[in-house]
Amino acid sequence: MKKTVMFTFILLMSAGIVWAKDYEIQKKAGDLSVVVKMDKNPAVMGENGAIVTVKDPAGKEVTDAEVKMDYSMPAMPGMPAMNYSAALALNGNTYQGKLNYSMAGPWNIVVKIVRGGKTSSTKFSVDVQ
Fold it and tell me: What is the pLDDT of residue 1?
């Protein structure tokens, strides 16, 4: 009986990990709509994939922009601030890249979109495990 209960518990726990939904957030950057998806939820130390979809006010996907993500952790006692940047490459109708978090904790992310000489940005935070 104990083996059956333990096996069922392990099976349910592993199924939850397999079916966990990717992190997704929708924001506005000026008049653009931005959807950011990250392949890990919660984000983890090390490499995390990011996919950004940008749409104009008419709902058409934007594929003529430069998109990058600046991510940082503020300074804490005994530790300087950490600042990184990742340029995202256009792949079909989305911009894709990798963020490499160097430690666990709260990280601030700024998505910057440069299109036609105009820069738009939006901010959000993630808690890296």
Answer: 58
